[in-house]
Amino acid sequence: MSFFILVVVIILYWWLRSRRKPKLSPYMLERFLKIADPVPLCGKPDVVWETRDGSLIVGDYKSRENQQVYESEIIQLSVYKLLVERTQNRSVADYGFIHFKNRSMKKVSLMKEKEIITLYYRYWNVIGGEVVACVANNKNYCRYCSHKHECN
Predict the structure, then answer these.
(1) Contact 107/67 with Cβ under 8 angstroms?
(2) What pLDDT score was predicted for residue 152?
């Protein structure tokens, strides 16, 4: 009978272990990264985790209670992904995590490299006057924008 209980406990242990979320260990914390290719970018990811299988995941901490994820934050994490890929020569997940003050987190899909490059050139075309900027869909974006005087 005790052998049977031991077998059940071992099976239960392995089943519970297999259902756990993947273990993440910190790989990099607030390290300044800079690249020149494919476009010049720099940034300091709050955290980059390494999974058990060796892949990397970018993350950002937000000090607000509001758990809304903004497009600008997805862009920020996407840039971090590109920076980490290029500087570490490692595979980075196509998703990241945004952590909020109340310890909750949201998983977000990240942009592709081509989309980041397109945004980079659009930004400089707006600054250079070659492209007319337009007001964002959400007026909250415009409130703190240093380029709002250039919008129509």
Answers:
(1) no
(2) 54
Tell me the domain boundaries of the chain: 22-126
pTM: 0.77
Please tell us whether the domain made up of 22-126 is placed in CATH 3.90.320.10: yes
- Report the distance separating Cα 131 and Cα 147, nearest Å: 13
Using alpha carbons, list the distances in angstroms from residue 28 to 25, 32, 69, 107, 127.
Answer: 9, 10, 23, 19, 33
The radius of gyration of the chain's CA atoms, rounded to the nearest angstrom, is 21
Note if the bond before 26 is cis, omega within 30 degrees: no
Q: Does the pLDDT of residue 105 top 90, yes or no?
A: no
Length reported for the chain? 152
